[in-house]
Amino acid sequence: MWSKVREYIKKHKLLKANDLYIVALSGGADSVALLLLLKEAGFNVHAAHCNFCLRGAESDRDEAFCVSLCQQLGVELHRAHFDTGVYADLHHVSIEMAARELRYRWFEQLRTDLGASGICVAHHRDDSVETVLLNLIRGTGLRGLTGIQPRNGHILRPLLCVSRKEIENFLAVRGQKYVTDSTNLKTDVQRNRVRLQVLPLLSEINPAVAEHIQCMAENLAEAQSVLDVVVNEFDKNNILEINDLEKYHSSEYIVFEWLKKYGFNGSQVRHILDAECGGIVHSEQGYDVLKDRNRLVVEHTMKPIVSKRIPEEGTYLMDENRRFKVRKCAAYVSKSAHIATLDAQKVLFPLTVRGVEEGDWMIPYGMKGRKLLSDLMTDRKMTVFEKRRQLVVVDAQGVVLWAVGLRVADAVAVAEDTREVLELSFTG
Fold first, then answer.
1. Cα–Cα 20 to 30 A to 323, which of 129, 217, 252, 372?
2. Which residues pair with 351 in a beta bridge?
3. Phi-psi region of 155 (alpha: psi -120 to 50; beta: other; left: phi over 0)
4. Which residue has the higher pLDDT, 54 or 236?
């Protein structure tokens, strides 16, 4: 078995000869075999055992076994005890998720403290096959059919090339004992049902089914790597030009991969692709995606704009990123989009800064008739996102004086007889 594991480690460049590695040791057959293999191969390893205090005396039995084994092998053992039930209740997660979070958080802290290069966990081929089947049953895309990967950051899996049966045979030849978690024998968990019922049934149809599924997963992982390169070409910013995807004949997959990091699922991707221009879809992670003609734009879901009253000159904060400064000065005409100069004698305080409301209109400088702000923004080809961020400054009577960054109202524009201007400057 070591020859297979050695070649797998070499193929995926998992371990280096002189580095320190931590082996996650539960006391079960898989982790015991992994520790034996790496220790006998001459790697510098420490072991780490988690007692989740969930199975009473059985949990303590597993810990005692790990202590004894590491003493026999001359391997330094690190131990942690967790009140997993309390953690699960406090964070409103399942026991399984709580154990996973506690385990991997501690492993990473231990790795950092020891200066280790990685954490070796004992997932084997059957685990990967079970993952593929579970994802298939639940519904998945291509990535879900690639199984468990040999490397995930600092998490390393050298045993993915061997089966559970091979591991048990290896230990039997060595006469090496191990412990069994009794919960793995129950069929009330989906993974256990796949392991104890589904896979044995499939093996009756084809004894090599697990090997074939794993081979398929590895082939799909290669395909996924190629697709990742394609997706990365478009993953530069928050805008995706749909026309650029035409050469791939199908845009849905690339759009899904591009959007999933923002929390969008497959059905939402199909919805936004089928939407009319201006359609918006929201994700649970607090993002909106907009279909703007032939492109998609992603932004954080915007909080409602809170109006700001400006009773006199001074500096006013809209929020932590935006502010208005109001002052009177000698007459001049601003050339900056973010600074408006108004005839001070024609401005009626208090002013109010707010978002655009339905029906808002103004008479822009140089025009004679009214212009709806919605039409003004459409003429400038502003997106829905830009429109909902647009601010206006209105006077005491609610008259729009300045569509911020766009136009100043004709009635308060600087004229030849203006002696003093009210300068409004916007930052943000």
1. 372
2. 310
3. beta
4. 54
